[in-house]
Amino acid sequence: MEDVSNTLAKRSQQPGDLEKEFPNDAKRSKSQEDPAISIEDARKEELRSDAQIVRNMEWDTSGCAHKLVSKWEAGEEGQEELRNLRQKLEDFIKIIDDKQRRMQEHLKKVDKVQKQDKDLSNEENQPVQEPAANNDIPAEKITLANSDTVRELTDTIHEDVVLDMSAKKPEIPCLDKKVVASSSSQKNGKNKKNEDTRDATETAAVDSEHQTEQPEDLRLATKIITEPETSSAQKVHTDNRRCYKCREGMRLYGQTVFQCMGYACEVKIIAKEYYYHYEKGALPVKVCETCYRSGKTCNKRKDKFVLKQNDRQPVPFYECRCGRVAHKYCTHPEDNVATFQCDHCTKEVKALPSTADLPKNELTKNLEEELLRRMRRFDENAMFTVSQQCYKENMYMNIDQLPAKIKENFTTVKKVKYAVRTISVSQKIEDVDCCIVQWIIHETTSADKNGRKWTFPQYLDSLRVFEESDDGNGKPVKDPRNKGGVVAAIILEEYFNFMKSFGYTRGFLLAQVPKPGTEYLFFMRPSWQEKVQLTQENLLGWYNKTFGEMKKNGSIIGYEVLPSSNVPSTNDSPTSVDQTRADKEPNNYLIQITEDGGNRQMNGTDIFSPMSVEIASSQDAFYDNLFDHSLEFSSLRWIRYSTAVLTLNVKNAVADDKKKREASILKKMKENAKKAAKKSKRSKVQESQGAENQLE
């Protein structure tokens, strides 16, 4: 027995039967034969008829199943026809479900764009812009075919049934119409009729009322379902959104430096340079142009790489359910794009970790008290927290590349032992601790040939500018937006005052502006600050002013500016004019803290996050060292623009510190117990010897 398609193909050769059972096809053929009927009228009539056919699809499931059960007798040929019919119904269900899913996704995009337009117009007091014309179809006017009914029919066919071959064939208009159209197209060799049938099947899901009144919109709705695209209104208004926290629009990441991943290649891909990128896989591969041409592509196919430019990327927005948006780094680090809620929509206050939970030592307590005392002269509500992130001892310093005037003090010492600590300052902003300043400091634990101890502070923040404004009477006024520079100066001054009692009498500081494209640290800045480029002259001026104030206050006894100690880079020519000029520029400071230091001993029990960064001969070398050790501190952003890394590790740091402190206390108790036991034993021996001597 022939299959269903061949049987229906034979029937399609009888024009009379087709005209009776499929009036829609008959009308189409008549409209093509009779020139008096316009093609447009025929198309409208066809759409109405197809919509009527789809509405007739919602028949009674039980009655249709009964007809199908009694259609054919049981047999292999009947089962084959049943399987073909079931496969066609399943394909039809998939098509309907896919179109319904696409339409729902598009409607969500339309609602999102309209919502963004409304929020933007409310903020700027401008009339709401109307969405594009292809987005004007309301959701309630677009209904897809009831796929649940067809799915129930398919589930019924899956069951074991008894087929009756003598029963009358039931009428399934949509299925027979599809098969007949396919067979007729095979016979005539024309694709126009098949395309019209497909268009009618796709547009028949629209409500008949909307079809009759607006037949042109149906075609538009079908296009929207099959080709979902990003609305033009969304593209226009995406960059115009403003963060509700910082009140600024689109922000850009700071320039990132990539390391070429080619074999034995040490090239760094800096700003504006081109490179080849392989996006597939767990680890994206980035190679320079030289490695790409030579075939060093990490065992990846060259045709899969894409040429890109190392450009600044925009900071993504997080959108709350109420419509407010915020930059990613204006939010708390625990937030993400799916769970973000603005402050106005947060019903319960989260117990967020705070830098106040970090352990304190004598240094951080003194620094914090003095910082609050001095800053509250300008702002009585100022809230700052000073914490020590790490302290590690028994390290050895390489002083070969330091200036000669510094190195000559250690000629009698082969290795200089030192300890490293980081001092971080956070400011409370809207119940969030934002790190605004961090110093990383090396402290020699062994004295030089003159018996003096040295400290080497290095400022992690490569600030663009330290500005001061005039109050009109010639007196400088600190700009409240530049608290980072003020706080950095206060912390350094009080650190020198504190370290005098531990015998530290000299200091060395490197002040050099990083090259463009090598700014790893604090690269998120307010837009007003990005307009001013930091120059070597501005930076040296700030340090001169800072050390001058320290000398007036008696914190230091003097300072001296030394020539640069830059070592030419391997990528630069040794005869470079810029490099020669940089070698002659003064950018090192020899600081005379005091002449007579104290003899207090440093307490190293507050170690809870050890790290190591070597002393560098230049700012570039310092950054390179950070990069090699994965210590980019990229989460330490400027004030208002992110939360410090401190808040992420507070709980772990506190727990680890508590364990180490308990272990240290237990160790000291055991040592004291042993000492006491030895002392008591020694005293007993002495007493017994004294008694024997007395007897003698």
Automatic annotation (TrEMBL):
<dbReference type="GO" id="GO:0005667">
    <property type="term" value="C:transcription regulator complex"/>
</dbReference>
<feature type="domain" description="CBP/p300-type HAT">
    <location>
        <begin position="352"/>
        <end position="696"/>
    </location>
</feature>
<dbReference type="GO" id="GO:0031490">
    <property type="term" value="F:chromatin DNA binding"/>
</dbReference>
<feature type="compositionally biased region" description="Basic and acidic residues">
    <location>
        <begin position="192"/>
        <end position="217"/>
    </location>
</feature>
<feature type="compositionally biased region" description="Basic and acidic residues">
    <location>
        <begin position="107"/>
        <end position="121"/>
    </location>
</feature>
<keyword id="KW-0805">Transcription regulation</keyword>
<feature type="compositionally biased region" description="Polar residues">
    <location>
        <begin position="1"/>
        <end position="15"/>
    </location>
</feature>
<feature type="region of interest" description="Disordered">
    <location>
        <begin position="177"/>
        <end position="217"/>
    </location>
</feature>
<dbReference type="InterPro" id="IPR013178">
    <property type="entry name" value="Histone_AcTrfase_Rtt109/CBP"/>
</dbReference>
<feature type="compositionally biased region" description="Basic and acidic residues">
    <location>
        <begin position="17"/>
        <end position="33"/>
    </location>
</feature>
<keyword id="KW-0804">Transcription</keyword>
<protein>
    <recommendedName>
        <fullName>histone acetyltransferase</fullName>
        <ecNumber>2.3.1.48</ecNumber>
    </recommendedName>
</protein>
<keyword id="KW-0808">Transferase</keyword>
<dbReference type="GO" id="GO:0000123">
    <property type="term" value="C:histone acetyltransferase complex"/>
</dbReference>
<dbReference type="GO" id="GO:0004402">
    <property type="term" value="F:histone acetyltransferase activity"/>
</dbReference>
<feature type="region of interest" description="Disordered">
    <location>
        <begin position="1"/>
        <end position="44"/>
    </location>
</feature>
<dbReference type="InterPro" id="IPR031162">
    <property type="entry name" value="CBP_P300_HAT"/>
</dbReference>
<keyword id="KW-0156">Chromatin regulator</keyword>
<keyword id="KW-0539">Nucleus</keyword>
<dbReference type="GO" id="GO:0005634">
    <property type="term" value="C:nucleus"/>
</dbReference>
<feature type="region of interest" description="Disordered">
    <location>
        <begin position="668"/>
        <end position="696"/>
    </location>
</feature>
<feature type="region of interest" description="Disordered">
    <location>
        <begin position="107"/>
        <end position="136"/>
    </location>
</feature>
<feature type="compositionally biased region" description="Polar residues">
    <location>
        <begin position="686"/>
        <end position="696"/>
    </location>
</feature>
<dbReference type="GO" id="GO:0045944">
    <property type="term" value="P:positive regulation of transcription by RNA polymerase II"/>
</dbReference>
<dbReference type="GO" id="GO:0003713">
    <property type="term" value="F:transcription coactivator activity"/>
</dbReference>
